[in-house]
Amino acid sequence: MKSLQLEGPRQLVLRDVPEPVPQEYEVLIQVGAVGVCGTDFHIYSGEANYNSDAQGRAIPLSIQPQILGHEFCGTVQEVGRRVAGLEPGDRVAVDQGLNCYSQRILPVCAYCRSGDSHQCQNYQERGITGLAGAMQELVTMPAVNCILVAEGLSFGETALSEPLGCIIHSVDRAIRMPARYMFPGEPGGSEAIENILILGAGPAGLLFLQYLRKAQKFQGQILVADRVEEKLKLVEQFGGTPVNPSQVDLAEAVGELTGGRKIHFLIEATGSGVVFQTIPEVLRKQATVVLYGHGHEGTDLSVLNRVLFLEPTLVVSVGASGRIDAHTGRPETTQRAVKLIQSGRIEVRPLISHQYGVLEDIRHAFERDSRNQDYIKGVLSLE
Predict the structure, then answer these.
(1) Sign (positive/negative) of CA torsion 306, 189, 337, 218?
(2) Helices 229-237 & 203-210, crossing angle to 10 degrees?
(3) Do 96 and 183 belong to one domain?
(4) Do residue 218 and residue 151 come from a single domain?
(5) Based on the domain organization, do 119 and 210 belong to the same domain?
(6) Closest C-alpha among 162, 244, 250, 146 to residue 207
């Protein structure tokens, strides 16, 4: 079968590899769609490498190439002899992370017991930690990592259940953290969050906006800053207030829009280190800052000094960690994401700006398309 392998920074090569064979608790999935994530771009460029040896040292791509693709879904082709609840022909969304439950490791580790399965002591992740991702024709997964999806939902939309799961996990973590400002209706805190600023109107920023509005039901002001007008049009469509820092001074705009109160809750969703120079100018003292973006290549971390001086609550989130549903035995966060997309409460189709029909073409997202102003999200869709 065909497989697109990253054999070095910016070196994507099409290879023929043997078809994987499902083990007794696994299913074989024909890939239906796979999204290109910001994490993929960081691995592709050489800025990040999450494949480590036993000592925690990064394994170079030249020694162990990485098949990218952790946002994916598809059709079950074959089931292992001990698989229950799934049959060939089923359409499934996938949680790509292998934790104690999906690897059938007993006793389960403390992270899995607490509902933080993405930090599992035995964690492995397809497309990120060395395991082959879905930028190939077939992939195997534990059956418990697969969530049935309705026939009417396209594969392209289904693949975005993974990034939506990451947003759900981020907000869940923020709510669990003790902080001065809390969402209305949530316990703790001394004041209610009145406003939110999202830095970046890429896929993550737009999903945060929708989730806060439609699932968290936050009625306050949500400002979203980005320099691309096409993205800011979607901000308006999804109920946010767009701010273009290339046209106005962000700190001045925030001051005017919040009546001088500044920001209670800030989400950094750009992965750009430059934004840390602006954060202290817009942030209210003891506000909450969600550090969602990754990368920040070449940034002098001294830019954090002025942020830390404001004594914020810092929330860091990675992936779509969540509890295992006691009724289904499957990842709760992924199930929540699929339901939100299937119900239409969260719109993901407008985020897909570039769609590719064959495996070889997904390289265009990395090599060309992501540099264009109209690029939001690239998805390989094989329907």
Answers:
(1) negative
(2) 10
(3) no
(4) no
(5) no
(6) 162
pLDDT tens digits for range 80-128 = 999 999 999 999 999 999 999 999 999 999 999 998 998 999 999 999 9
Tokens found for residue 328: 């289904």
Q: What is the DSSP letter of 369?
A: G
Residue with the two structure tokens 């509005």:
213
What whole-number distance in Å separates Cα of residue 65 and Cα of residue 68?
9
The verdict on 172 and 148 lying in the same domain is: no
Would you call 183 exposed, middle or buried from its count of C-beta atoms within 10 A (0-12, 13-18, 19+)? buried
The one-letter code for the residue type at 17 is: V
Helices (H), 264-362: 279-282, 304-308, 332-343
How far, in Å, CA of 164 to CA of 50, rounded? 21
If one counts the domains in the chain, the total is 2
Answer yes or no: is pLDDT of 302 > 90.
no
Residue with tokens 């952790």: 70
Cα 259–chain centre separation: 33
Give just the sign of the alpha carbon dihedral 276, 277, 281, 286: positive
How do strand 2-6 and strand 12-16 relate by DSSP bridges? Answer: antiparallel
How many other C-beta atoms lie within 10 A of the C-beta of residue 144? 25
How does 263-290 read in b/e, with b if 16+ C-beta sit within 10 Å? bbbbbbbbbebebbebbbebbbeebbbb
Radius of gyration of the chain (CA): 21
Q: What is the maximum alpha-carbon separation in the chain?
A: 63
Q: Is residue 177 part of a domain?
A: yes
Element (H, E) at 81: none
Q: Read off the pLDDT of each residue in 154-174 and give the average, rounded to a whole number.
A: 97
The average pLDDT across 286-308 equals 87
Q: Is the dihedral of CA 144, 150, 151, 157 positive or negative?
A: negative
With beta carbons less than 8 A apart as the criterion, state whether 284 and 262 touch: yes
The domain of 11 spans: 2-160+352-381
**pTM surpassing 0.90?**
yes
* Whether pLDDT at 9 is above 80: yes
CB 206 within 8 A of CB 351: yes
Tokens 């990218």, residue located: 68
Residue 373 near residue 230 (C-beta atoms within 8 A): yes
Q: What secondary structure letter does DSSP report for 66?
A: B
